[in-house]
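debug: dumping io for the single-chain case to check the tokenizer round-trip. Nothing else runs in this session.
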Amino acid sequence: MRERTNEEWLSELQNVGKREEALADLRAILLRGLQRGLTDYVRTSGPEFQPLAEDFTQEALLKILANLDTFKGNSKFTTWAHKIAIRVALTELRRARWKNRSLDEMTSDETPYVFAPTDKKRRPDQMTEQGDLVQKVLTLIEEELTDKQRQAMELVPMGGLPIEVAAQQMGMKRNAMYKLIHDARVKLKSRLEEEGMNSADILASFT
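debug: decoded output
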């Protein structure tokens, strides 16, 4: 594998004739990066991680190719590509984690912060609807929340950290963290309702 400048990466990935070799090298770089970058989220040393990493890398490569024109050259190309791969991987891991979780819990202050399992005896139509809602919330989290709100949601409702621990990690007081999560939930709930889904509709998909 040879070293490339930012300009060489862009040139080769945009050139159909040279793309195959560049993609193979970039794939290897991203796979190694995911092994290191996801250690705080999954056990990357086990054999079950490799097929996951392959899937994450493949999706990341597609996103990278589709967004080459957005690379500004403010960092190394491989650093930029690695960030995309990590973001893809975390999104997929969250989606997998939420498959058996209730979105109603996330949008209500009357429930515990950590998601609770839902009924495992769901019908196929309920599972499909739940998957659609999960995707909708993932999209809204990316589009509607501020960076701090997104980070707080990832640490507490989605990550299961105690609010005191999350507040310490973010350099905030507990009450400020609580308000940050509350505001994020309100925003998500409002946007879901704008899409024609109220709390009863959301809960019905998981019971």
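debug: round-trip ok. Confidence is low (pLDDT under 50) at residues 98-127, 203-207.
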